[in-house]
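Meet the record:
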Amino acid sequence: MNSSVIDSFVKDLTTHGEILQSHLGEITQAVLTDILSEIEARLEKEEEDFKKSRKVYNILVEALQNLYHHTETHSESVLKNGDNIKTAVYYLGRKGGEYNILVANYLTLDYIPTLKARLDKINNLDKEGLRSYYKEVLNNGQYSVHGGGGLGMIDIARKSGNKLDYDFSNLNTDYGIFTLKIKI
């Protein structure tokens, strides 16, 4: 999966910080479990601030579950670049006391306007607005096929305390790459 956003993220971390964990490929339940177990143990061992390590872990769970749920709905199609449409990218790094997460996956171009509108709505809310929106989505009973109804992105914004830094890039006439960067 090639994207200037991903390349820039990796270059910045390797130059000014460190990459703690990464994955390129399909996110299966087994891969998800392995990634989370490994990083939970590493955070417990290395991070002195328990509250921060829990925050990083919980945000990571949301971000990786998003990848898992949104790539599992794709068929086994292979793109012209040779990637399976289910291919996803994940990086966790640390730079200057901040943790940085990047997740990216392929998506159909027709889904971009809906996702962009949802992300923009989340980014336009303050802390109290996010709390209210979370409750509204939770109580409206309109859950997606993945069960969350969009709660994951709201939760990431709430827990990180930062705006969602996202990007869409077109790959071809049918597919694009969605990239989400999270600072904690």
In short: The chain has a mean pLDDT of 89.
